[in-house]
Write a structure and sequence with these properties.
Elements: H1 4-9, H2 41-46, H3 51-57, H4 60-64, E1 91-92, E2 96-103, H5 122-125, E3 133-140, E4 147-154, H6 159-162, E5 167-170, E6 173-176, H7 181-190, E7 192-201, E8 204-207, E9 215-217, E10 222-226, E11 245-247, E12 252-257, E13 263-267, H8 285-291, E14 322-325, E15 335-337, E16 349-352, E17 357-363, E18 367-369, E19 371-379, E20 395-402, E21 407-412, H9 429-434, H10 436-442, E22 448-449, E23 451-457, E24 462-467, E25 489-495, E26 504-512, E27 538-543, E28 549-553, H11 558-561, E29 566-570, E30 580-585, E31 591-597, E32 603-609, E33 646-652
Parallel strand pairs: 10-15
Antiparallel strand pairs: 1-30, 2-33, 3-4, 4-7, 5-6, 7-8, 7-9, 10-11, 12-13, 13-14, 14-15, 16-17, 17-19, 18-22, 19-20, 20-21, 21-26, 23-24, 24-25, 25-26, 27-28, 28-29, 29-30, 31-32, 32-33
The chain binds MU-OXO-diiron and calcium ion (CA) (3 copies).
Residues 16, 155, 253, 268, 346, 365, 452, 539 line the site of MU-OXO-diiron (FEO).
């Protein structure tokens, strides 16, 4: 059992990686030795095999893709590719500007205090941009191209990068001192989301600090539980006997913007925020075990009883939902929409189907967990915003089975149907939703290699599933074709008749990721893909107004790939299908989130998350990175400022369409 201080070491970008072999009891494997090679490029080079041996393993694909192969004229993209690599700065394609728009600690309101990292407070943080920006959405105001609301999730906090004087290095590893109440409350205020008006002036975006709709949402903001599980006894707590009023949202990873202009925040790795032990024989024991609750990464439960499962055992049932925020009313109460199920929600990207119903694609980011979609019962009314505001309270949640013959089947999670009955412990639809994973287990959904963002393409009627990696997979299947899948893959779903509400369809693998030069990796990028163009660990995706796919990554590092994370343009059509090109890359230690391209395709907003979290394996640093000894001080490069996660606005020099 790790003590609190040791656990703090794990409070890094690897929260989602740190929870073992997966929690699906029907599929998780206890690993002994990992026999398969890890394909660490650096390890490979340092190993007994010399460079000549590497040449011998080069795949035919790689031989064709000579170092600086030119992208095919069949490509839908036309920009000069960025050189992959690792350094302290970010880099965008030549001819483009990447301007920092909002950094952790920046004012969200005109009267917010200036950022003072050495003397941060909860009150200041509640008025300032939060930490670890993830999802980014843009909601135009009054139909304008140059004025709108930027909505940004703040997924989690990295204390060793945020707070001075709390790290000691022991045996070459970072140890973080125990949090006091002040620190915990700052952490809670740095979570959640930001809604802020932005304007484009002379081609450059800037925040509007007196925007009437500006808002911070935190881990303490009052929210309402809605939908079939609202008010259920399993959602009632000591603090809230109604089972309908909950404070805060946590670990908001990706999200979405609905067709009616609300902001969706997905609650992902909620397990790390709970501590303590459930009372002996408690009815939620199996439910919590399936989600890894409690994991005790954060110390919030020491100062807030609701995060201690011994003191308020049902509180954890009030997290793991999809949250909807009405951004047009800064006093509105965000709604946790229980109809969309409870699991480790990566995001919720949506599309209006042919018949007017709205379909939300949902990934459950855990090794061997599932792909879902939700279809609203009601239809979207483009003429009447108010009529859409509770569409997410009624509809059908489906989970995917990917057959080896290339069919995908969407199976409804409806109480009373199939095995979802009282005999299996589901007394109502509320039970099905509270324990979505267990319901999906019984339906024999296909366990996947960590489903992240799923992006529908309204132009083609298809959807792209980012499967980030799964090094614990020992048995391959058609939809998860590699054991020890270190670099992930992307599945393309082709819904029947291009109808997003369809309950059947087909699927193909768009690309298996990784370095095509190493034959054993089995990457399948097109031969036009250059040494800069390949990537591993797809995480978020965007589809632009022309239907082109952009993919951002989480987890590339010097030792595995020789490159940082970034944003790649991926061809999906014609002869260029499977060609990838690097458009933007982040500073050392960072991850790229939230790619959001405006409807007019003139601005790409991207979120640089946890820059400086790492650098041990980069020759420019070569040791642990923390507040006093950072691998980068991006974006300020000011010794008085720590490294700061930030949202960046990418535009073409002189204006015009991106890519
Ligand atoms: Fe927070 Fe699944 O990435
Ligand atoms: Ca993610
Ligand atoms: Ca997306
Ligand atoms: Ca991720």
């Amino acid at each position: 059992m790790r003590d609190q201080q040791t656990r703090n070491i794990f409070r890094t970008s690897k929260l989602e990686e740190a929870c073992g072999p997966g929690l699906n009891p029907t599929n998780s494997r206890t690993m002994g030795e990992i026999i398969a090679a890890r394909f660490s490029r650096r390890g490979f080079l340092k190993g007994s095999m010399a460079v000549t041996a590497i040449s011998a393993t080069v795949s035919p694909i790689a031989l064709l893709s000579a170092t600086d192969a030119q992208a095919s004229s069949a490509s839908a993209f036309n920009f000069p590719e960025v050189t992959a690599g690792v350094d302290a700065n970010h880099h965008v394609a030549e001819g483009y500007d990447a301007d920092v728009l909002l950094r952790w600690g920046d004012k969200v309101f005109a009267d917010a205090p200036d950022f003072d990292p050495a003397n941060q407070s909860e009150a200041a943080q509640e008025r300032q941009f939060g930490y670890n920006n993830d999802f980014v959405g843009f909601i135009p105001l009054d139909g304008a191209d140059d004025r709108g609301l930027l909505v940004v999730n703040h997924e989690y906090t990295n204390e060793h990068l945020m707070f001075p004087g709390i790290v000691t290095i022991k045996d070459g590893e970072i140890e973080v001192s125990d949090a006091d109440e002040t620190r915990v409350n700052i952490e809670m205020a740095a979570h959640g989301g930001t809604i802020i008006e932005i304007r484009r002036v002379d081609g450059k975006w800037q925040p509007v600090l007196d925007g009437a709709l500006n808002r911070r949402i935190t881990a303490k903001t009052e929210m309402e539980l809605r939908g079939p599980a609202a008010g259920h006894a399993r959602l009632q707590t000591v603090a809230d006997p109604s089972g309908r009023k909950v404070f805060g949202t946590i670990n908001n990873c990706a999200g979405g913007v609905t067709p009616w202009g609300t902001y969706i925040m997905a609650e992902e790795n909620i397990h790390g925020y709970f501590m303590g032990e459930l009372p002996e024989g408690h009815a939620e024991a199996a439910n919590y075990e399936r989600l890894g609750i409690p994991e005790s990464t954060y110390a919030w439960g020491r100062f807030h009883d609701r995060f201690d499962v011994a003191k308020d055992p049902n509180e954890a049932n009030r997290f793991g939902w999809i949250v909807e925020v009405d951004v047009m009313d800064p006093a509105s109460t965000p709604k946790k929409r229980t109809a969309l199920g409870r699991f480790k929600h990566e995001g919720a990207e949506s599309v209006v189907a042919k018949d007017g119903r709205v379909v939300f694609y949902l990934g459950d980011d855990e090794r061997f967990d599932y792909v879902y979609k939700f279809v609203t019962a009601g239809k979207y009314n483009p003429e009447d915003r108010a009529a859409n505001m509770d569409l997410l309270d009624k509809g059908t949640l489906y989970v995917a089975r990917f057959h080896d013959d290339g069919r995908v089947e969407w199976m409804p999670l409806v109480h009373g149907e199939g095995p979802l009955t009282a005999a299996n412990g589901f007394a109502s639809q509320a039970d099905v939703l509270i324990e979505t994973r267990r319901a999906a287990d019984l339906l024999e959904a296909t366990p996947m290699d960590r489903p992240e963002d799923i992006q529908p393409n309204p132009v083609t009627g298809r959807a792209y599933v980012m499967l980030t990696n799964n090094t614990k997979r020992e048995e391959a299947n058609a939809a998860n074709p590699r054991v020890d899948n270190a670099f992930g893959h992307i599945i393309e779903i082709i819904e029947a008749d291009g109808d997003f509400t369809a309950t059947t369809g087909t699927w193909e693998i768009l690309v298996k990721c990784g370095d095509p030069k190493i034959a054993e990796v089995g990457a399948t990028f097109s031969t036009e893909t250059t040494v800069n163009g390949w990537f591993g660990m797809p995480d978020n995706a965007a589809v632009d107004a022309d239907g082109r796919l952009w993919v951002s990554t989480d987890g590339n590092s010097m030792s595995d790939t020789g490159r940082t994370d970034g944003l790649w343009a991926v061809d999906t059509e014609g002869a260029a299908r499977g060609t990838s090109r690097l458009f933007y890359r982040v500073p050392v230690g960072g991850e790229l989130c939230g790619p959001c391209i405006t409807e007019d395709m003139t601005t790409f907003f991207v979120a640089v998350q946890h820059p400086g979290d790492g650098g041990d394996d980069w020759e420019g640093h070569g040791r642990p990175s923390y507040y006093e000894d950072l691998s980068t001080r991006w974006p300020d490069f000011n010794d008085a400022m720590p490294v700061r996660p930030a949202v960046v606005a990418i535009t073409r020099q002189g204006g015009g369409r991106i890519g």
